[in-house]
From TrEMBL:
<feature type="compositionally biased region" description="Low complexity">
    <location>
        <begin position="325"/>
        <end position="338"/>
    </location>
</feature>
<dbReference type="InterPro" id="IPR036388">
    <property type="entry name" value="WH-like_DNA-bd_sf"/>
</dbReference>
<dbReference type="Pfam" id="PF04542">
    <property type="entry name" value="Sigma70_r2"/>
</dbReference>
<dbReference type="InterPro" id="IPR011460">
    <property type="entry name" value="Lcl_C"/>
</dbReference>
<dbReference type="Pfam" id="PF07603">
    <property type="entry name" value="Lcl_C"/>
</dbReference>
<protein>
    <submittedName>
        <fullName>Sigma-70 family RNA polymerase sigma factor</fullName>
    </submittedName>
</protein>
<feature type="domain" description="RNA polymerase sigma-70 region 2">
    <location>
        <begin position="25"/>
        <end position="87"/>
    </location>
</feature>
<feature type="domain" description="Lcl C-terminal">
    <location>
        <begin position="377"/>
        <end position="489"/>
    </location>
</feature>
<dbReference type="InterPro" id="IPR014284">
    <property type="entry name" value="RNA_pol_sigma-70_dom"/>
</dbReference>
<feature type="domain" description="Lcl C-terminal">
    <location>
        <begin position="505"/>
        <end position="616"/>
    </location>
</feature>
<dbReference type="InterPro" id="IPR007627">
    <property type="entry name" value="RNA_pol_sigma70_r2"/>
</dbReference>
<feature type="region of interest" description="Disordered">
    <location>
        <begin position="295"/>
        <end position="364"/>
    </location>
</feature>
<dbReference type="InterPro" id="IPR013325">
    <property type="entry name" value="RNA_pol_sigma_r2"/>
</dbReference>
């Protein structure tokens, strides 16, 4: 009898078959470990990230609607978590006393465990020299070259089209080829000119030294040898085995999945005697994923305890089960509504709407937008209470825009580049050229403005940018491009929306919106979507409508892709489908804005049919 297909395993696991869950873990843990290991080579938390990925996979597995696409979906989950880890690591401040000990990089593990030699070894060593942003692409492409993934699965894991995936891979390949030349030249060690170039180098691979050494190699006949006899890495890696998962990680995860069905209460005490200490951690991870309507793993150092109990210290990289019923979203600090202050906490996250979303007055929707000119070069949004820089004068690349806002001294300082959801709040889709209230924000250019939110799949190169010609949101802002920067000041609260689910509805108290939890499975026209919501009765409640494009944007989790939403709160969300809104496009009033949960981007030209998520 052959091995069961992914489809059979998913369907069995979704119906409660623990042996199917264990089979999925055994089949996909090596793949996940190899993707994470190569993408985060040299980082101390590879095993932690692998376990977090497995948590997310088993947590969201019940909502996977296309079992045949398990492999591609797993890749997308892993890449989103890698992107989140890299953002968290970049933003973290670690003292020297707290810094982790150096760890063996994944390339050394690959060479050792797979016994690589010759040009195969050269390729593995060259991987050390890639830019950090290219490593996730390398990790997927390596598995494609080895025959573990298809190009379509690589593209889906990256959250892009196969054509764009080819461009990304070609760019990474060019850098890998350059790195192979660097590795070869350094290994030869017979060029006096090269020895002069690397004087002062600490011996650690780094992009700046790759560029310096490669520049010398290109112009040096002594170093630039062997290129003609170099075998393409695709041929070298064809059929190359996966790096085996460490025994401790395999044992922990396997032990956890085998007993997780008995630990749905959220504790690992019933199995502590039967698993190793490492397995206890994984038990908590996977058992926690099985708990209905539980919050996702919080990253805050303190976790709220039941009434009357003191808070419990928690590791930021471990989920802590709690006896509460809201469904939370991505791993960010717990959320508390707040009002802006001149000096917001440096650690506050502003990834979620912590306020009702303002709507244009002519739209006839709640929370009509209004602003107050504070007379000091700033304007206050009377709905969100965010304070904005009134006029802007700077077009800057992404990182310079963030620095500009952080150092802005206007009206007492305390500014930052707005997040995706903060910048969404001041768009006025009833206007164009520019799509903003020009009395509140005079002189606004009808061009692109930066948000501070990087794209989850390629956070080192792309970020969310907004075209104020008509209000389009895009995840394809190349960070080296110069766009406008409008700074904002807010405390903004932080972290996950405190979603509450009941009677097929999801309520977000911070935005005052209640959503239909799962809409119709079939796509329909915009007119049919409007009629569907108007006639909807859910939990005895009427008064449903299509959301505005700004309202539906509050449900987007921009740390995820495909779908970019909390699937525990909103199961069955189509990963790459348009969702209708009630907002007409000012440039073409006959068209409706729609949002695509593949990433959360918006458009009004591309949707002819779409899905429905009603709101009241």
């Amino acid at each position: 009898m052959g091995h069961p297909s992914d489809r059979m395993l998913v369907l069995s696991a979704q119906s409660g078959d623990e042996s199917a869950r264990e089979a999925i873990l055994r089949r996909y843990l090596p793949l996940v470990y190899n993707i994470v290991g190569r993408a985060l080579s040299g980082q101390p938390d590879v095993d932690d990230v692998v376990q977090e990925c497995m948590l997310r996979i088993f947590r969201d597995l019940p909502d996977l609607r296309e079992p045949d696409r398990l492999r591609a979906w797993v890749g997308a989950v892993v890449m989103a978590r890698i992107g989140a880890y890299r953002r968290e690591s970049r933003d973290a401040t670690v003292s020297l006393a707290e810094a982790p000990e150096p760890v063996t990089d994944f390339e050394s593990e690959t060479i050792l465990r797979l016994d690589l030699s010759g040009q195969r070894r050269e390729v593995a060593e060259a991987a050390r020299w890639l830019d950090p942003g290219e490593r996730p692409v390398l990790s997927l492409w390596w598995l494609e070259a080895a025959g573990e993934l298809s190009r379509a699965e690589v593209a889906e894991a990256l959250g892009i089209t196969p054509a764009y995936a080819a461009v990304r891979i070609q760019r990474m390949r060019a850098q890998l080829d350059t790195s192979r030349s660097v590795v070869t030249a350094l290994a030869a060690g017979d060029c006096p000119g090269l020895r002069a170039v690397v004087r002062g180098w600490d011996g650690q691979p780094a992009p700046v030294w790759r560029k310096r050494i490669a520049r010398h190699v290109r112009d040096c006949p002594l170093c630039d040898h062997g290129v003609d006899s170099r075998i393409s890495p695709e041929k070298l890696l064809l059929g190359c085995a996966l790096v085996p998962v460490p025994a401790g990680l395999t044992g922990a995860a396997t032990g956890a999945i085998s007993v997780s069905g008995h630990t749905r209460s959220g504790t690992a005490k019933t199995v502590a005697a039967s698993v190793t200490a490492a397995a206890v951690v994984a038990v908590a991870v996977i058992a926690y994923a099985n708990m209905p309507d539980q919050p996702r793993e919080p990253a805050a150092q303190t976790v709220a305890a039941p009434t009357g109990e003191a808070p419990t210290a928690a590791s930021p990289s471990r989920p802590v089960p709690a006896a509460i019923t809201p469904v939370a979203s991505s791993p960010t600090p717990s959320r508390t509504p707040a009002r802006p202050s001149p000096t917001p906490p440096a650690t506050a996250s502003r990834d979620w709407a912590n306020w009702p979303m303002p709507n244009p007055g002519k739209a006839g929707l709640p929370h009509r937008a209004s602003y107050t000119d504070l007379g000091d070069g700033t304007v206050r949004d009377n709905v969100t209470r965010l304070v904005w820089q009134r006029t802007v004068t700077e077009e800057l690349p992404y990182r310079e825009a963030k620095t500009y806002c952080a150092s802005l001294k206007l009206a007492g300082g305390g500014w930052h580049l707005p997040t995706r959801i903060e910048l969404t709040s001041i768009i006025d889709h009833s206007r164009r050229q520019p799509a903003i209230d020009v009395r509140a924000f005079p002189g606004t250019s009808p061009r692109f403005f930066w948000s501070s939110t990087p794209w989850a799949v390629d956070e080192s190169r792309l970020a969310w940018a907004f075209n104020f010609y008509e209000g389009l949101t895009s995840n394809a802002g190349v960070q080296t491009n110069a766009y406008w920067a409008r700074c904002v000041r807010s405390e903004g609260g932080s972290g996950d929306p405190a979603y509450r689910t009941a009677d097929g509805q999801v309520t977000d108290p911070a935005t005052s919106l209640t959503w239909e939890r799962t809409g119709p499975a079939a796509a329909m026209s915009a007119a049919a979507a409007t009629s569907y919501c108007a006639g909807l009765t859910l939990g005895g409640q009427t008064g449903w409508r299509l959301p505005s494009v700004k309202e539906i944007a509050t449900t987007v989790d921009d740390s995820r892709v495909h779908p970019a939403i909390n699937v525990r709160a909103f199961p069955g969300t189509v990963g790459n489908g348009w969702y209708w809104t009630s907002t007409n496009a000012a440039p073409e009033p006959g068209r409706r804005w729609a949002l695509n949960y593949d990433d959360g981007f918006t458009d009004y030209r591309r949707a002819t049919t779409g899905f429905v998520r009603c709101v009241r």
